[in-house]
Amino acid sequence: MDPPFRERYASGDLLYGLDESRRIYCQRWGLKYSSQVEPFLTIDHYSLSEEEARARGRVDDHRSPTARQIDFWNTLHRHPVYSSVVGADHSVNGSWSNYEPETTRRKIKGGLHWAAHGRYQMAVHFILDGLDLRAVVEKNATWRGYELDCVDNGCKWRSFTGVELRWIYRNQADALVRSTVQFWKNFRPVVPPWEQSHLWWSGARLWSRYVPGSRRGSFRT
Hints:
Layout: E1 14-16, H1 19-29, H2 50-55, H3 67-77, E2 91-93, E3 96-98, H4 101-117, E4 124-127, H5 133-138, E5 142-143, E6 146-147, E7 150-152, E8 155-157, H6 160-170, H7 175-180, E9 181-185, E10 188-190, H8 203-207
Parallel strand pairs: 1-4, 4-9
Antiparallel strand pairs: 2-3, 5-6, 7-8, 9-10
């Protein structure tokens, strides 16, 4: 997050942000948005178990899980919260897996934790284009008139991109996280949206209204 900025994508790095924005950046950077070729561009395509990887066509009798996929599992196993989703129940639709909302939240946050604390020196390129930062801070995101941040029949739903950005904010004191995440806006590397020198002058004031509440031991979850 701090200068000097990472100014290009390297193989193995992860893209975070709204799906449409990620696809636009992939086109601009000449990247293939593939669900079958590792290393994957997004955490979406990594699996939470060997059974899931097999169901998604990534593992078979002739192909074992890759070292990168195994490192993802191992890193989550060592976390006091994210370890709970390794091997979680899921259904598979083609190459995509469908999880319970809480499982998805822990997987995507676990992906950020993995990028910072796993054995691979990967970067996270977080694309801010298209994001309503006020909605992220206030947890009231909508999409085409539907509420994304709500509680329905006792089940908590959240905008996943908002979940990811708030996780980075909560963990910004972690030097490994700070050295892993690079923010982008309008195809330019930028500082985090909560810092005074950001493109949005009111960013620091806006984020001062967000009070993190989740902590498990030394980890911000």
